[in-house]
Amino acid sequence: MENEFIQKTMQICTYQLKADTKTSYYWKGGSQILPNRISVKDDLFSPIKKSSNTLHPTIGEFKAQFTHKEQSKSSLMRNKPYQVHTKIRRNPDYPQFIGYGTCGISDSDGKITDIGDLMIFYSNDSWQTITIFYFVGMATPEHIDEAFKFAASII
Fold it and tell me: CA–CA separation, 66 vs 76, rounded Å?
């Protein structure tokens, strides 16, 4: 796949850990495709039921919710309660990254539905700042490695 195409599908956002918290981050810069406040945990918020993705182990979770005042330039705010969620999986081929996940959003029934977008998580300062590489439509097995290669080339 062409790097130019991958670059056009990618948006980068950076979040800073809120003081005196362990999992709460606020938007610091870059794209505002995701909510202004997110939670990223290097463990799980709740137990995981058996997953169909057994390629890589689950090592954490990402949760966020748009407020009614926030305006996303994406289609992530389709249905109330405007939640965004993913399990974070470790990719042993790219140890410099925290991991990756496939983006899920609230559907019309209030459940989380995968929309096929890939999120790659990166931190070079012990999780004080987290950079999220967001790739639209790239959450397929054949594209995940290409997205990692591209993100690795720009960190």
Answer: 9
β-partners of residue 41 are 61
| Residue pointed to by tokens 């870059």 | 30
Nearest to 14 by CA among 135, 137, 130: 130
Provide the 10 A C-beta neighbour count for residue 17.
Answer: 20
Q: Which of 90, 88, 84, 94 is nearest to 146 (CA)?
A: 94
Element spanning 135, H or E: strand 129-135
> Model-level pTM?
0.89
CA dist 69 and 53 (Å) reads: 35
How far CA 99 is from CA of 4, 6, 8, 96, 111, in Å, comes to 23, 18, 21, 9, 24
Supply the DSSP string of 54-70, one letter for each residue.
Answer: -SS-EEEEEEEE--TT-
For 59-100, the pLDDT digits (tens) are 899 999 998 788 655 678 888 889 999 999 999 999 999 999
Using DSSP, state whether 71 is helix, strand or coil. coil
